[in-house]
Write a structure and sequence with these properties.
CATH class of the largest domain: Alpha Beta
Structural class: alpha/beta
Largest sheet: 8 strands, mixed
Strand content: 5-15%
CATH superfamily of the largest domain: Type I PLP-dependent aspartate aminotransferase-like (Major domain)
Number of strands: 14
Strand order of the largest sheet: 1-9-8-5-4-2-3-13
Order of helices and strands: HHHEHEHEHEHEEEEEHHHEEEHEHEH
Oligomer: single chain
CATH topology of the largest domain: Aspartate Aminotransferase, domain 2
Number of helices: 13
Radius of gyration: 23 Å
Length: about 450
């Protein structure tokens, strides 16, 4: 063993000791009213920290061996041919839509003025790439309870300009994939799943993110696994995978991995555009792209997190059940969340909507819980079309957005992440009951 190897082992052993001294919270006691009940948070142990430091010692700062390992674990998990790592879920959404604008897709490419079906009750990152690519979002209302697209309006939303459907599995609850996929297939539409909040969710036993042409994921600290900042795009279509990588890597036509050269065997022999024949293929740009790659240090964390995903999923499902049981006697006041038919959600959060005749407001409840150190959030942007940045975008609405507005005014969510212990869940449900007693 070399001196460097010996030192590496010593360093990593010290990192494990450091984790125990600085980050291990296994002995931490929850104190009701003093300890915070967060809606989300990072769950990790010494394995993530060791992998991160191990990667840093390589000083291979771009994608390397850990990125390859993380990618392989994701591809095996989803059982897809290609997972492309990115620097965020938002970037993943941008890449998914941008790839579909490529002229290489012929008549199926997305062009400025084309319409994409979506919803306004969600996170901006699902709609922003449409606006950035001069596409027209077509907004449908959602159902209260599942918080997913109202599929009854899908056929009405189709026009000669409709080219795609791009929607999220809200808070990990799958949308009606039977209806949405049938509509996409019938009309020859691209189907893109925003799976950022739904890693581990299933529909008819199959993982969400594997039904559409493209799906996206996020590894932000609030999500099911984390790399800090980070995300991915997945597809089973080799042409789309090549395009996504191209747009992610500056629009570069070359598909060599980092540190590789001349994978195609024709690096100095071809003619591209009006460049001189034999121009270096590593510097040929076939699309207007970006640099949205993940670093190897982020991937090192993600690879370790993947080993915990099944446990994380189980805990989220169980925590959701426990909160549901704890609040089951309050349906007079709340609409409790329900899983979409045929689905097994890996819930991102526990979402509550006030009944129309509730004697209190969403703000009253949120303020009370906050005073008692329980974090809550609204359903992201509420109604996107009421947000300052989106009020003047070109769009179309099919039907009305009555439920979207109702959710905006009457809904909040709380945590189900693996850091939610039984003590925290009992405190949370107890405080909701204490609040109700005032009325």
């Amino acid at each position: 063993m070399s001196k460097a190897d010996t030192l590496r082992n010593e360093i990593l052993e010290k990192v494990r000791e450091f984790y125990t001294a600085a980050h291990d919270k296994s002995g931490e006691v929850f104190v009701p009213g003093e300890s915070r009940v967060n809606y989300a948070g990072r769950i990790f142990n010494d394995e993530e920290l060791v992998s991160l430091v191990d990667s840093s010692l390589d000083f291979w700062l771009t994608a390397g061996r850990y990125a390859e390992d993380f990618t392989g674990k994701l591809e095996d998990y989803y059982d897809v041919s290609d997972v492309i790592l990115t620097n965020s879920g938002s970037s993943s959404n941008l890449l998914a839509i941008s790839a579909l604008t490529s002229e290489t897709l012929g008549d199926r490419r997305l062009k400025p003025g084309d319409e994409v079906i979506s919803v306004a009750a969600g996170f901006p990152a699902t709609v922003t790439p449409l606006v950035q690519n001069q596409l027209i979002p077509v907004f449908l209302d959602v159902e209260v309870g599942t918080y997913n697209i109202d599929v009854a309006k899908l056929e009405e939303a189709i026009s000669p300009k409709t080219k795609a459907i791009f929607i999220a599995h809200t808070l990990g609850n799958p949308f009606d994939l039977d209806a949405v996929k049938a509509c996409a297939d019938k009309h020859g539409l691209w189907l893109i799943e925003d799976n950022c909040d739904a890693l581990g969710s299933r529909y008819r036993g199959k993982l969400t993110g594997t039904f559409g042409h493209i799906a996206t994921g996020s590894f932000y600290p609030a999500h099911h696994i984390t790399t800090g900042e980070g995300g991915c795009v997945l597809t089973d279509d080799p042409q789309l995978a090549r395009l996504i990588k191209c747009f992610r890597d500056w629009g570069r036509d070359c598909y060599c991995e980092g540190g590789e050269n001349n994978t195609c065997g024709t690096r100095f022999t071809k003619q591209y555009g009006t460049l001189p024949k034999g121009y270096d293929h590593k510097y040929v740009y076939s699309h207007i792209g970006y640099n949205l790659k993940m670093t190897d240090m982020q991937a090192a964390i993600g690879s370790a997190q993947m080993d915990k995903l099944d446990l994380f999923t189980e805990k989220r499902i169980n925590n959701f059940k426990k909160i549901s049981e704890g609040l089951s006697d309050l349906e007079k006041y709340f609409i409790l969340p329900k899983a979409t038919e045929h689905s097994e959600p890996s819930w991102f959060a526990y979402i509550l909507t006030l009944q129309e005749d509730a004697p209190f407001s969403r703000v009253d409840l949120a303020r009370y819980l906050d005073e008692n150190k329980i974090e809550t959030r609204g359903l992201f942007a509420g109604n996107l079309l009421r947000q300052p940045g989106f009020m003047n975008i070109e769009h179309r609405v099919v039907g009305d957005l009555k439920n979207t507005d109702y959710i905006m005014n009457n809904t909040l969510f709380m945590g189900v992440f693996p850091g939610m212990t039984d003590d925290k869940i009992n405190y949370l449900t107890g405080k909701v009951h204490d609040f109700i007693k005032q009325f």
